[in-house]
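User: I need a structural model of EF-hand domain-containing protein from Lymnaea stagnalis for a docking pre-check later this week. Nothing fancy, just the predicted structure tokens so I can convert them on my end. Input:
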Amino acid sequence: MQILFIVVVALCSGTGAQPFNANDVLGRLFKLYAGDDNLFQQSEFSRFWLHFDLDFDGQVSKQEFDSGWKQEGLPGSQNAPTFFTELDRVRDEVLNSQDFPHIFRLFDENGDGSISVLEMLYNGSAYFGDVD
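Assistant: Understood. Predicted structure tokens for EF-hand domain-containing protein:
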């Protein structure tokens, strides 16, 4: 919850500060994959999830996801197996190009074809819980 609070305060303060602290894991990953426009397009969002693909076969297994989630230090790592199950929209026990469009639509709150920092935080918090 602390990270979400810090980000919201930075965005609302009008100081022009970047939405994420460079030391923040979520911020680093968002900036790495979102690109210069600070928005996730479908292809960037897919690449974000594929960074968990350790054997580079184009899909993320449950084991790869669990391991990667913990290794990245992302919030709620003890719940990574549940997160994987929620994200596996096709129910084939891998995350891949069949799942990514569904997941993208879940995070694209306003349906404009891109995911903003706020949409990522809002929906990330809803799916993955507090980020204490």
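Before docking, keep this in mind: The two ends are 5 Å apart (CA to CA).
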